[in-house]
Amino acid sequence: MSWLIVRGKRPAELRAQFGFFETGKREFVPESDVTEALLPSGWHLIFFNDASPPEIGDEALCRISRGAEAMAFVVEEASMVSLARGYAGGKRIWEVLHDSNEGLEHLAVSGEPPKSFPAIRDRLLNELRADQDPCDYLFDVPADLSKAEAGFRHDEDIEGVEGDAFAILERS
How many domains does the chain have? Predict the structure, then answer.
């Protein structure tokens, strides 16, 4: 699965730029192919039940980030690869990648991630190193970044939101 969050553009503008339209249907959990939600943090979330939809490609996110901030997140549990990227001003400004195939401590970082990154990384690294039978703690770095920055994590309820938070979208 993957999702992007955008701040600085209206939801209708984002839908138009991506070629989405509203269906008028909602759901409690994002089970449809594409859904959206306005987060209490002010970020607009678009959620994909696909790890690599075209909307989270570098070119699309550079375009969307002109005049806005955008972050994209990918969680691929089958391969235990997770990714977070940040965009602003039409450019990618940071990336955090974890690939467990490279080892449980693998974390490739470029640019300048959000201020919440070092504490998240350090906490998860400490948990990994303290565990007698370690699992893939660093896989959670991108999801925890999403939670810290926008208040959304794919496997948790959205704090402060009741009912069917996710509006179902369709591609044109």
Answer: 1
For the stretch 31-42, pLDDT in tens is 999 999 999 999
| Cβ-Cβ contacts under 8 Å for 68 (sequence gap 6 or more) | 6, 7, 8, 9, 88
The parent domain of residue 167 ranges over 2-171
Prediction pTM value: 0.94
172: DSSP letter: -
SS3 letters across 27-94 = ECCCCCCEEEEECCCCCEEEEECCCCCHHHCHHHHHHHCCCCEEEEEEEECCCCEEEEEEEECCEEEE
How does residue 120 score in pLDDT terms, banded at 50, 70 and 90? very high
